[in-house]
Write a structure and sequence with these properties.
With 199 residues, the protein is of the alpha+beta class. The protein is 28% helix and 26% strand.
Length: 199
Amino acid sequence: MYFPLSQISTNLFANEGEFIYVSTQLPYFGNYWKTSTGKYYTGKTPQDKPTQEIIPLSDSLGTLTSTLVNSYYNQTDDNNEVYIDLIKPLAPAIPPQYSVNIPTPQDYNVGEYRRYFCKKTNEILYIEISKDTYNQLISQDPTIQYQLYFPFNLSWKLTGNREQVFTVNKNITELTSQQLILPMLSEYLKKDFTKYWKL
């Protein structure tokens, strides 16, 4: 989405209890930006991906109250008695866990494989994760804190000339870092661009 700079306020910060996600109604805290029409989105600027719409908690309370009142007056059981279905508390979402994806013999036959990572959206914090955790973040699984982490992956060369492997993995890492705005990614990897290399 594109907004002229004159129509947005950027680099704002939401404290806990101020905003919720429009799509999930889950709480949001961190950087956000605002349009001149009164819409709010996650991230420091429109270029800070992924961008999701959020709403002030105070604005959402009226909607929630209206929904509960309508539920009270419009739902009846078999005895024609009015009832409300209580909202069951959700299990708390957990942060992604560190997990090393070790290449398999088949990966070495192919010569490359995928490594999976995520970055915390409001700070320079990287975690290497499993493919399953990566898929949970991509699919916005409510059991994991997908709102707080940005998932990405790297194609990682495993075999061939050592210097060539180093150069290929270094270039892929730096290109991904630039394209997805992932500062200090090479430093997180300790610039070990021949990790898992075999001749």
